[in-house]
Amino acid sequence: MKAFNHIYAAELTTHGQGAGTANRRALVIAGNDAEAKALVTRLIDQFGFDTVDAGPLSEGWRIQRDTPGYGPRRTGEELRQDLASAKRYAEQ
Q1: I need a surface site. Which of 2, 10, 24, 76 has the fewest CB within 10 A?
Q2: What is the Rg, in whole angstroms, of the alpha carbon atoms belonging to the chain?
Q3: What is the three-class DSSP state of 3?
């Protein structure tokens, strides 16, 4: 399971917003266990963030250092675009 690697710890306590808030920040998850992903999605929502599922853990590379979505504040739609445009280090 991959989650929380692209947000600073302090931002977990300061960037959260209520569900349905316009421009609510989103976080990416990736994993192979559907139950674990559902649990983490609920936790992320309780923290005040939307979730974007990148798919299996093998796709977790799409949200790591030097990819578009890593670090900056992004909405769900922005993160989906970032994940789609991410390039592996070997492709750069």
Answers
A1: 10
A2: 13
A3: strand
DSSP-assigned states of every residue in 6-64: TS-HHHHHHS---TT-TT--EEEEE-S-HHHHHHHHHHHHHHT-EEEE--SGGGGGGGS
What average pLDDT does the chain have? Answer: 95
Cα-based distances in Å from 43 to 15, 37, 38, 68: 15, 10, 9, 24
CA 12 from chain center: how many Å? 12
Closest Cα partner for 82 from 66, 64, 62? 62
Q: How much is the pTM?
A: 0.93
Residue 60 CA to residue 55 CA, distance in Å, equals 8
Name which of 4, 18, 7 is nearest 49 in CA terms.
18
Q: At residue 24, what is the residue type?
A: R
- pLDDT tens readout for residues 57-69: 999 999 999 999 9
